[in-house]
Amino acid sequence: DTGVSQDPRHKITKRGQNVTFRCDPISEHNRLYWYRQTLGQGPEFLTYFQNEAQLEKSRLLSDRFSAERPKGSFSTLEIQRTEQGDSAMYLCASSQGQATGYTFGSGTRLTVV
Amino acid sequence: AQSVTQLDSQVPVFEEAPVELRCNYSSSVSVYLFWYVQYPNQGLQLLLKYLSGSTLVKGINGFEAEFNKSQTSFHLRKPSVHISDTAEYFCAVSETSGTYKYIFGTGTRLKVLA
Lengths: 113, 114
What we know:
The complex is a heterodimer of chains A (113) and B (114). Chain A has 113 residues and is mainly β. Chain A has no helices and eleven strands. In chain A, strands 2, 4, 5, 6, 9, 10 and 11 form a seven-stranded mixed sheet that branches. Chain A is globular. With 114 residues, chain B is mainly β. Chain B is built from no helices and twelve strands. Chain B has strands at residues 3-5, 10-14, 19-21, 24-26, 31-38, 44-50, 56-58, 64-68, 73-78, 87-95, 103-104, 108-113. In chain B, the strands form three sheets. In chain B, strands 2, 5, 6, 10, 11 and 12 form a six-stranded mixed sheet that branches. In chain B, β5 (31-38) and β6 (44-50) form a beta hairpin. Chain B is globular. Classes of the chains: A mainly beta (113), B mainly beta (114). The A-B interface holds A 4, 6, 31, 33, 35, 40-45, 48, 55-56, 91, 93, 95, 98-99, 101-107, 109 and B 4, 32, 34, 36, 41-46, 49, 51, 90, 92, 94, 96, 99-107.
């Protein structure tokens, strides 16, 4: 069990560019979540996958955001035409049912300049 | 819909003193409750969880929390803190079915003073 891995750890991008983040969950976990955390705030739910199916998306997830989880393994979160307001920590978490709670990755910190 | 309120944004406490971090929640359905800790530039680590049963829950690093349904609270306590407990602490709630997505509070920054 190597935990939840996120790549990259840090990303600095110019406004208007596209960025993609990757999350590798714990291999036996079928549930995967993306959260966004801004400074001084708790994490906010973005989207949820059960296996490869994206079952819920937050209203925070505008049309510029898209997430995938092909084959129910790793997941990617893409942000198109980044804006300064997208600057945040993007956290991925996985679980194998509610009783265990989530395991979070270390996050990807995005800075849009 | 659920919501979580952490009334204290910052809590300073001297080393070896007891501490309580407060969490209140609102929900029209049954919930599960969690406390997570976040160290700088890291993800969140599960401290403890309440799913059902005994209302006093013990977690890692000597922390415990008590679920109070009538007061809709889930306060986190530690009888004697260490410098290494300095971190951000988040309370979270989730429904007991469906997506199990978490609703987090805004966090409490615990600063342990020497």
